[in-house]
Amino acid sequence: MSQFRPFGNPGPLGLSSFALTTFVLSLHNGAIGQKTGAPPNVVLGLAFFYGGLCQLLAGMWEFASNNTFGATAFSSYGGFWMSYAVLITPGFGVMEALTEAGGSVKAHALGIFLLGWVIMTFIFFLATLRTNLGLCLLFAFLDITFILLCAGDWTGKVNVTKAGGYFGLFTALIAWYIAASDLIGHHNSFFILPNPSLAPRSRTQVIEDGKNEDGE
Q1: CA-CA distance, 205 to 202, in Å (whole number)?
Q2: Which residues neighbour 121 within 8 Å (Cβ) at sequence distance 6 or greater?
Q3: pLDDT, tens digit (0-9, with 9 covering 90-100), for 156-171
Q4: For the chain, which domains are there?
Q5: Dihedral (CA of 119, 168, 151, 140) sign
Q6: Could you tell me which residues come within 8 angstroms of residue 44 by beta carbon, excluding any fewer than 6 positions away?
Q7: First to last CA, the chain
Q8: Per residue in 50-102, pLDDT tens?
Q9: Which residue ranges traverse the bilayer (predicted)?
Q10: Predicted structure pTM score
Q11: For residues 77 and 71, is the Cβ–Cβ distance under 8 A?
């Protein structure tokens, strides 16, 4: 009977690729991007290859590791970044067509695109309530980010989009923290990064904790 070689943990790769791509885009959605005047197309390479392809691959490896949540989340957001890259790539002509159709049509279309991700992210958030604090905060902040970006497109208010950029930065930092907590351990460092579990403790665990506190 053949034995399969075990997979490493694809989580840090998926989280890191999501974090870096989100960080760069959020800087442009926020005040820093507005001040520098840098075009959002600078995120294209990251959206296609790091946030897109690498995160999609991480999702596929999560399937192989029997982690349905991680596989669905990483694959979905890998698809998000690839689809976003298509939207802003001039060669595909999507943004040009929306611009020619009128500003209101463009804002409405982009708002609907983001609204779909608001709903999807909220479903992921509900699935993290009994996992760990890091993941729960990650999807909560990400959902707020999508809500603000969606509202910014529909209302045309730049400050709302900037607020989405700021929340996106926090989201990226949280994702990096979770990735680092998985990568850094006693086997390769002098410290660990805590990520408290939200899973309910069993009656056996409560009894054992009580015994440990009593010194028995």
Answers
A1: 5
A2: 139, 142, 143, 146
A3: 898 999 999 999 999 9
A4: 11-214 (1.25.40)
A5: positive
A6: 85, 88, 89
A7: 46
A8: 999 999 999 999 999 999 999 999 999 999 999 999 998 988 988 888 888 87
A9: 43-64, 76-95, 107-126, 133-154, 166-185
A10: 0.88
A11: no
